[in-house]
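lol ok so funny story. i was supposed to be doing the assay writeup but got distracted and ended up predicting the structure for this chain instead. priorities right. anyway since i did it might as well share w the group, maybe its usefull for someone
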Amino acid sequence: MYKIEQSLVLIKPDAVQRGLMGKIIGRFEQKGLKVVGLKMMNLKEALLREHYAHVVDRPFYAELSQFMSSSPIVALCLEGLNAVEVVRKLSGTDNFEFGTIRGDYSTSNQKN
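and the output, tada:
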């Protein structure tokens, strides 16, 4: 079943620093998703703890928090048919999946 959905996407600090924002947003737009919200922001610890609440007690959280607050990120709200599934497939689940955003642009297994 097709339904209009919205999905949150964070373009992480390394991609922002490498100037990949336009390419990444373009990939989502080419798949038919519409940008309905966009904000460049510096993440504070309180927001990171809320967003990553499911891993805040894990050993890697401190490194994740440090990375995500190291420079600005771009937060996108994307809208379209089955947007959640489309974002997941296009983003990819691992850094080596050729043709996905992570596979094509990630330089690190930890920072993807």
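The helical segments are 13-17, 21-30, 45-51, 61-68, 83-91, 101-105. The radius of gyration is 14 Å.
back to the writeup now i swear
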